[in-house]
Design a protein that fits this description.
This protein is of the alpha/beta class. 36% of the residues lie in helices and 10% in strands. Helix 4 links the parallel strand 6 and strand 7. Helix 6 packs across helix 7, helix 9 runs antiparallel to helix 12 and helix 12 crosses helix 13. The radius of gyration is 25 Å and the shape is globular. Bound molecules: 4-O-methyl-alpha-D-glucopyranuronic acid (GCV). The site of 4-O-methyl-alpha-D-glucopyranuronic acid (GCV) has 10 residues, from loops. 4-O-methyl-alpha-D-glucopyranuronic acid binds next to loops.
Length: 660
């Protein structure tokens, strides 16, 4: 029985206010408190307290005051701002950035919420949207943003674009957000006709110094450059026989007079290394200690590429004298785009809390890095993210970048309470029990559900095409873009041997991890096939065979989404019709996609295992022979097409004609 109301009336909302839906406006909160700057407090820190019959916010700076007001706003929305409130905080990391992979033609690489929110091709900048975005970012502590794709267009540095970026930066500055840009290594060649991009070439160095001067003349507080070099076809210093450190330091030198920084990505591809997971350590360990003070090496959370589950990148445990920065992916490139519910709070918590043992026990990943970046999931969609539940990942990113020790569960709880409005006439207590708790449970289980139906037990990179659907059978010219290279399925078994008998990747981890990962008996089962190639009848801890366990995980993933759908269906009385319908539709898509994943992966691996499905696993829905000849139809922006029943539209390869 409901407490306080028999017939709640959901409050109308459409998701466009994101997590600020339940809050008083910032200005109003600010006007309700007494503020003071106290230089004794950390620069971005604040202290909220009650004294002399008034509420006070003291802060180390204007930025700290802003964060204090947002913290109070959040506490109010969560019902935690009663008399006697005493909250003192400062961010763990000084740099908390979003990375936008937005292109100058307004497409967004791996973007699933419409075209670029910056509207590069329009004459005017979209000021209202930028303000809304900036407020959302500031409210969760994000203080920097890289506006354009790491696969950068050199034109971002021409006079016209610098002027445009300056206009955006002027707005973001009001919210305490610094602007950064991704640069293309060959910009001096493309923009000014230089003959070389050699970082030790005097003319090249001068070009970057002049460019820095030009940028800072327009944007005095410009943050710096993000660089993807010698990676996935991008040029870099190695093309001139130089190192990553040579390249990064040359840019660092150009930015240093203005206080700018270089974020140099460790997402590198050395074609000589047989295991892709080994490459970053192989390239960066010899450079440890060789980067300038204003260079930070930006490292993806895992060694491959934002898979649903990866171990942490071994680089975090290896570099001692290099400043490191985390790169998370908020946009769901490998977790069902903006169609699937996959709350990343748990993914990131798992990574940040992992012990690297770099400086002995307790050297968590969170402690090895000094800054955090997240690849944004925003676009022109009115709700920014294409799905109300995708907004939770942007929120969780900001909160964890502020305080990596917050729990994923607390963050999920906060997000739900601030995003979904309590129905009229329903008590907060009843809302918590009837709506917040079940939604929090769904969120907390959601990423593991995706792992189960996409790639359980350490399997990875089973994707095809746009990275939405399964294609474990795909073989490309380049092995390290090919699912078969990663799963290594054969009649003898499945999994990538990264042990000492295989690629040796385990030894890129510090002890006791190296030995733990090296032995299948001690390797965590969720990473088993990441590190081991094992026979189909390998005995798992459950006593079942590996084959049976694989099948069970895939089926369990589908069942979880069925359960989410059933739970959500019962929540209709408490949620605005627009948000209810959007989520119900997306969960239906997710269930059908999960079934497709299960059918494709289990069916394909069964060709090698030559074993029947275990009894408690439901029969596959589609025969593998019909799936291996079909691929997913996508629209102009790479979004998957689903039919009227919300099933993925799979086109037969043999009948496919590219649209004219
Ligand atoms: C921006 C993966 C993605 C690419 C991305 C790349 C990167 O390979 O599929 O779209 O490019 O990572 O992080 O540079």
């Amino acid at each position: 029985m409901l407490v306080g109301c028999q017939h709640p009336v959901p409050t109308a909302q459409d998701g466009t206010e994101l997590w600020l839906a339940a809050s008083r406006p910032y200005e109003e909160v600010l006007a309700s408190v007494q503020t003071a700057v106290d230089p004794a407090l950390p620069a971005e820190g604040y202290h909220i307290y009650d004294a002399d019959g008034a509420r006070h916010i003291d802060a180390g700076s204007a930025a700290g005051l802003r964060y204090g007001v947002y913290a109070l706003q959040r506490a109010e929305a969560l019902g935690q701002a009663g008399p006697g409130l005493d909250l003192q905080e400062a961010p763990r990391y000084a740099l908390r950035l979003l990375n936008h992979w937005d292109n100058l033609d307004d497409t967004v690489e791996r973007g699933y919420a419409g075209e670029s929110m910056w509207e590069w091709t329009s004459e005017e900048i979209p000021e209202a949207r930028i303000r809304h975005y900036a407020e959302l970012c500031a409210s969760i502590g994000i203080n920097g943003t890289v506006l354009n794709n790491v696969n950068a267009n050199p034109l971002i540095l021409d006079a016209e674009h610098i002027a445009r970026v300056a206009k955006i930066a002027a707005i973001l500055r009001e919210y305490g957000i610094k602007t950064y840009l991704s640069i293309k290594w060959t910009s001096p060649i493309a923009l000014s006709g230089l003959k070389s991009g050699d970082p030790l070439d005097r003319k090249v160095r001068k070009w970057w110094q002049d460019k820095a001067a030009e940028i800072y003349a327009a944007i005095p507080d410009f943050g710096g450059f993000l660089v993807k070099a010698n990676s996935e076809g991008q040029a870099g210093p190695q093309d001139y026989g130089r190192t990553h450190a040579d390249g990064a330091n040359m840019l660092g030198e150009a930015l240093a007079p203005y206080g700018g920084i270089v974020m140099w990505r460790a997402f590198v591809y050395s074609p000589t290394s047989p295991d892709r997971a080994n490459q970053a350590v192989e390239e960066f360990l010899p450079l440890d200690g060789k980067f300038s003070d204003n260079v930070i090496v930006q490292i993806k959370n895992g060694p491959i590429d934002f898979q649903p589950r990866e171990p942490f990148s071994p680089l975090f445990g290896k570099l001692h004298d290099t400043q490191m920065m985390m790169e998370f992916q908020i946009t769901q490139e490998y977790l069902g785009f903006s169609n699937h519910m996959a709350y990343h709070g748990t993914t990131w918590e798992e990574c940040l809390d992992a012990d690297t043992y770099r400086d002995g026990e307790g050297s968590t990943v969170a402690r090895t890095v000094m800054a955090v970046a997240g690849v944004a999931n925003t676009g022109q969609d009115p709700n920014f993210c294409g799905y109300v539940f995708a907004q939770a990942n942007w929120y969780a990113f900001g909160r964890l970048a502020w305080d990596p020790e917050l729990s994923a569960e607390q963050i999920a709880d906060e997000w739900i309470r601030q995003t979904f409005l309590c129905p009229e006439g329903m008590s907060g207590k009843a809302f918590s029990k009837k709506f917040v708790a079940p939604v929090r449970d769904i969120l907390m289980a959601s990423r593991e559900a995706v792992v189960d139906y996409e790639m359980p037990l350490g399997l990875h990179h089973l994707f095809g095409g746009t990275h939405y659907g399964p294609m474990p059978w795909e073989r490309l010219a380049r092995p390290d873009w090919t699912p078969a290279y990663y799963h290594q399925a054969g009649v003898d078994g499945i999994g990538f041997d990264r042990t000492r008998k295989g690629s040796g990747n385990v030894d890129q981890y510090n002890e006791p991890l190296a030995s733990r990962f090296n032995d299948p008996a001690t390797c965590p089962e969720e990473l088993l096939l990441w590190f081991h190639h094992l026979p189909w009848d390998y005995r798992m801890k459950s006593g079942r065979s590996l084959w049976d366990e694989i099948c069970l995980h895939y089926d369990a993933g589908v069942r979880r989404i069925e359960d989410f759908r059933a739970t959500w269906a019962g929540l209709e009385p408490y949620v605005a019709p627009a948000l209810f319908a959007e989520t119900a539709a997306k969960l239906e898509i997710q269930q059908h996609d999960a079934e497709w994943w299960r059918d494709a992966c289990v069916g394909y691996f069964q060709r090698f295992s030559e074993r029947p499905l275990p009894q408690d696993v439901r029969p596959l829905g589609q025969p593998i022979d019909s799936l291996v000849t079909r691929f997913l139809q996508s629209d102009r922006l790479g979004m998957p097409v689903h039919d009227a029943d919300r099933r993925p539209v799979l086109i037969d390869i043999r009948s496919f004609r590219r649209p004219q």
